């Protein structure tokens, strides 16, 4: 079953790649960047930004260059703000569910009661 689905996807993807070769380059650049982040390897970043400058990812590459020190720190430092972001997301979700009645006392009661 899975082989049939993949074969069904491969043909349209091949047609798109033939029609828009810039997307092939973009896909390769995204894959390289993802690999650098996953492996925490910042050594390839200068080469990647140079390659991205002439692609559809040029704007993203400019942002990486502008925030170079932050990107390097994210790739090399062991710290993460994932826990904080998760708590903020949870708080925003609860606020949206309360339809504007999210005063501090109600939020405290709603978030701290289960704990």
Largest sheet: none
Give unreliable regions as ranges: none
End-to-end gap: 45 Å
Number of helices: 7
Quaternary structure: single chain
Q: What's the helix-strand series?
A: HHHHHHH
Sheet-strand content, in percent, reads: under 5%
Q: What is the total number of structural domains?
A: 2
Number of strands: 0
Q: Which range best describes the helical content: under 10%, 10-25%, 25-40%, 40-55%, 55-70% or over 70%?
A: over 70%
Radius of gyration: 21 Å
Which helices and strands, and how do they pair?
Elements (H helix, E strand, L loop, with lengths): L1 H18 L1 H19 L5 H8 L5 H9 L1 H9 L5 H16 L6 H9 L3
Helix pairs in contact: 1-2, 2-3, 3-4
Kindly describe this structure.
- With 115 residues, this protein is mostly helical.
- It has 2 domains: 2-76, no CATH class; 82-112.
- 77% of the residues lie in helices and 0% in strands.
- The chain contains 7 helices and no strands.
- It has helices spanning 2-19, 21-39, 45-52, 58-66, 68-76, 82-97, 104-112.
- Helix 1 crosses helix 2, helix 2 (21-39) runs antiparallel to helix 3 and helix 3 (45-52) packs antiparallel against helix 4.
- It is extended.
- The relative contact order is 0.07.
What is shown here, in short?
The chain is mainly α. It folds into two domains: 2-76, no CATH class; 82-112. The chain is built from seven helices and no strands.
Jot down its keywords.
115 residues; mainly alpha; 2 domains; 7 helices; 0% strand
């Amino acid at each position: 079953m899975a082989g049939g689905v993949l074969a069904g996807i491969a043909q349209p993807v091949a047609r798109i790649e033939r029609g828009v070769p810039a997307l092939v380059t973009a896909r390769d650049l995204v894959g390289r960047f993802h690999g650098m982040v996953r492996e925490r390897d910042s050594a390839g970043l200068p080469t990647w930004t140079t390659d991205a400058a002439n692609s559809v990812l040029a704007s993203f590459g400019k942002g990486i260059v502008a925030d170079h020190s932050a990107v390097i720190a994210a790739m090399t430092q062991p710290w993460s703000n994932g826990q904080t972001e998760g708590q903020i997301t949870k708080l925003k979700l609860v606020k949206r569910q309360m339809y504007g009645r999210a005063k501090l006392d109600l939020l405290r009661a709603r978030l701290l009661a289960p704990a």
